[in-house]
Design goal:
Layout lengths: L3 E5 L2 E4 L4 E3 L1 H13 L10 H11 L3 H10 L5 H10 L3 H16 L15
Antiparallel strand pairs: 1-2, 2-3
Helix pairs in contact: 3-4, 4-5
Length: 118
Amino acid sequence: MADTLVRDKSYLITEDGRVEFTAKGREFHTAYFGYAGIDIRTIKTEADLERAEEAAFPYIFPFMAQYLKKRPQALGTRALRAVVEGDWNTYEDLFSQLLARERLTVLSGSRDASPDSF
């Protein structure tokens, strides 16, 4: 892929405006655009991609809710899912848990060990 501009890790734009999806980008965008009724194979140029993104935008929250349900349900994933589903009470509870985790300090080793030995 000579002369490309990397927009993000999901696709590249060549100097002549063609779109080339990465493997992960193709997987994600096939599902996302497909959810919105758009065939990713029709996206050849940067202009096509922009039109597809605009047309698919109204579907981003329901798609992301479904997408996140399929991922491991770590605390952060659950919080993000609550946001896209508009469940603000659940989000606030999960966000509080995330903040509490951030404040935790895990110590290992002997109480008598010097800080330099860790």
